[in-house]
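Batch manifest, entry 17 of 40.
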Amino acid sequence: MAVGRSKKVLTNILRDKLSKRLEGWRGKILSRGGKKVLLKGERIRNIRLSANTVHDEWYWSAEKDGVFTVRKAYRLMAGGCEFLEVGGASIWEREKWLWSRLWKIAVWPRVKLFFCQLCSEALATRENTATRVRGESSFCSFCNSSFESSLHLFWDWGVVHRVCERLGLEGDEDAYGGGVRDWVKARWREFGRRECGWFMVGCWALWEHRNKVIFEGREVDPNCVVKRVRDVMEEIDGGD
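Output type: structure tokens
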């Protein structure tokens, strides 16, 4: 007579064997992972710590001593990506006279800030606005035939020549190399300090008049610009 085992008993035996086998595999995997953790832990414990207590500090990378200065920050913003050494001297050093003279001109601070934006190509001309606002036209609001860049607005716009003629600020048309900053430097070399003040206020008044024409529906009037420049300069001279 054969002695058999019930299905339940056989199932329990197989389950126990499989459980032991799985536990063995799991133990091997865990042991491998544990060894890695232990090795990392040993390496961390073997790192030598400094006996000196050093505190974290802020460091301004644009200065050798790590101290932040507004002067350096201004130079970086004014020069932008052009703050590089070219031919042994940085572009900032080569154009330092331009910015130094700008701040020494006796005009309103708002005019100086405007002129900094002009020289840095940072004015909200239609050409600059079109690069930031989708669907915005970059053509000039007045001639509608050229891109409204800073140079176009302050050099090619017909009103400019009439204003400069009335104010006696006409210069050599071929004295600049094609950029706004080159154009300004050419005027800086031609004019004395007083004429530079009139030139700066003239550009500022043109920009003010341009905005009034576009946003307030004013008529283009060179005489209005000339009067505005003369009134401002008279007020500045009276304040001195």
